[in-house]
Amino acid sequence: EPEVTQTPSHQVTQMGQEVILRCVPISNHLYFYWYRQILGQKVEFLVSFYNNEISEKSEIFDDQFSVERPDGSNFTLKIRSTKLEDSAMYFCASSVNVFDTQYFGPGTRLTVL
Amino acid sequence: QQQVKQSPQSLIVQKGGISIINCAYENTAFDYFPWYQQFPGKGPALLIAIRPDVSEKKEGRFTISFNKSAKQFSLHIMDSQPGDSATYFCAAKYSGAGSYQLTFGKGTKLSVIP
């Protein structure tokens, strides 16, 4: 069964450093998403991406965040200058269309020291 | 308006018992209500979903009950098994133009004890 994959599984970084989280969505999916989950809290939407542009973003997704689909398979989330409060599990998801089920990857645990 | 409130935060059920998790929403524009199951170290996986044109949907041991007037929906797990022990998230989504995000509840950690 096709699945969303994410790398790395765990990323440790120093405050102020840039990080790039990588995702490979399911191959025939056209809509891509990033969510995050701070430890013990709910899953929160960050951004959705379709046709090589951002289609919706939340208040969390400020100028420190960016997304890119650099090739036909990868989807990345970049945090330019990490803060302590960026420490969370980051989930990538994808769907065939906007009405379809969103399938989540296993997540990347980001720890900012 | 965008909140989905989920209860209880944690639940312990005997094997064979019924697990019930409740969610309430505020935004009447929501028209898609999925439940996700998450095991430790894994991402959320869709368990079952419902749209407001039906009041109940059943898939195996899992049933969603939906009350549109009360803006509430619940997940019932019949004959709960230790393998059902996981965190369950309800979510809601508006399918209209320009809306892509799922709004999640805070999650319920279910423990099924033998």
The structure class of chain A reads mainly beta
Oligomerization state of this entry? heterodimer
Number of distinct beta strands of chain B: 11
Largest contact between protein chains?
Answer: A-B, 25 and 23 residues
Count all strands of chain A and give the number.
Answer: 11
The main sheet of chain B comes to:
6 strands, mixed
- Radius of gyration of chain A, taken over Cα atoms and rounded to an integer in Å: 13 Å
Strand coverage percent of chain B: over 45%
Distance between the termini of chain A: 37 Å
The number of helical runs of chain B is: 0
Order of helices and strands of chain B: EEEEEEEEEEE
Secondary-structure class of chain B: mainly beta
Question: End-to-end span of chain B in angstroms?
Answer: 40 Å
Figure out the total of helices of chain A: 0
Low-confidence stretches of chain B: none
Tell me, rounded to a whole number, the average pLDDT of chain A.
94
Give the helix proportion of chain A (percent range). under 10%
Our Rg estimate of chain B from Cα atoms comes to 14 Å
Stretches with pLDDT under 50, minimum 5 residues of chain A? none
3D structure, described in words:
- The complex is a heterodimer of chains A (113) and B (114).
- Chain A is 0% helix and 50% strand.
- With 113 residues, chain A is mainly beta.
- In chain A, strands 2, 4, 5, 6, 9, 10 and 11 form a seven-stranded mixed sheet that branches. In chain A, strands 1-3-8-7 form a four-stranded antiparallel sheet, with no helix packed on it.
- The mean pLDDT of chain A is 94.
- Chain B is mainly β.
- In chain B, strands 2, 4, 5, 9, 10 and 11 form a six-stranded mixed sheet that branches.
- In chain B, strand 7 (62-67) and strand 8 (72-77) form a beta hairpin.
- Classes of the chains: A mainly beta (113), B mainly beta (114).
- Chains A and B meet through strand 4, strand 5 and strand 10 of A and strand 5 and strand 10 of B.
